[in-house]
Amino acid sequence: MKKTIFAILLLAIHFLGSLSAEAANHYIRAGATGSGTGDDWTNACTGFTGACTPSTMVRGDTYYVADGSYGSVTFNRATSGTLVITIKKATVADHGTESGWASNYGDGQAIFNSPVTFSSSYWTVDGATRNESNWFNTAAYGFQISNNANAAQRQIIFGSPLSNLTVKYTWVQGRTGPLSAGERRYAIDCETGGTSTNLLFHRMLVTDSNQHWFIRNTNRAIVEYSAADRLSGDDAYHGNSINLYFTAENSIIRFNQWRDIGSPGWSGVTNIISIADEHGSSTKPNTWIYGN
């Protein structure tokens, strides 16, 4: 009996040890001067480079990001089953290790230059904070994807068909000003040559551009509890805040807010939500819209 209990305890210890080894935290902080291993806040990676290069990130792990400015990023780590990589804004309340931590690393915003590209599946980008009393308060979002000094036409791009992407508590700042010929000014562009599935845009703010969410070739895309502000367009490049544009099946648009959609001086703004049939088909996509 004693041998049986001892064997069970050994198995339990081994199992728990395996669980603890499966997931770890890593740290990214602009201006860090340590070793750059990403092991703690003193030795944090200074950006998405070195030990924190997206193509070599560890599946199942969390990468905390401190306040500061970061460059354009391509998230392209190959998948490993259904293991998710989480990119999370560090806050005073949630920042992983205390080693090397200072509260001013987590009381502001982490800013990415656009474009931010996703070329593989199973990512969660979590800015962690916003002002629930004012969804249009840009400074309250933990993550900002900037318009790169108004130079980038698109801010979030899909580099290939993907699945299981979540972006939340993030302000996406689209490009402003008059549209020019040939521009594809889509703040969030989901279109690829194949179908992307299980996309969640949650508690976000998207501003400017002539397409806030361009959702094409998707199945099960959700935009919820989010806000959109300032939509531009003209007769050649009409505006749609959420454009379910051909083969956007099983989309859910719920509990969102809009402001300044078609302000004075802008022409060609057509829809808050646009739903289009697939080319050559009379079958309309399944779409649920409610609570907005």
Structural commentary:
The chain is mainly beta and 292 residues long. Helices cover 7% and strands 37% of the residues. The chain has one helix and 24 strands. The chain has one helix spanning 2-22; strands at residues 25-28, 62-65, 68-70, 73-75, 85-89, 110-113, 116-118, 123-126, 143-146, 156-158, 163-168, 170-173, 186-189, 196-202, 205-207, 211-215, 218-224, 227-231, 239-245, 248-249, 251-254, 257-261, 269-276, 287-290. The strands form three sheets. Strands 1, 2, 5, 8, 11, 14, 17, 20, 21 and 24 form a ten-stranded parallel beta sheet that branches. The protein has a seven-stranded parallel beta sheet with strand order 3-6-9-12-15-18-22, with no helix packed on it.
State the gist of this model.
This protein has 292 residues and is mostly beta strands. The protein is built from 1 helix and 24 strands.
Number of helices: 1
- Between the first and last Cα atoms, what is the distance in angstroms? 63 Å
Structural class: mainly beta
Largest sheet: 10 strands, parallel
Number of β-strand runs = 24
Helical amount? under 10%
The residue-averaged pLDDT reads 89
Strand content: 35-45%
Q: Categorize the overall geometry.
A: globular
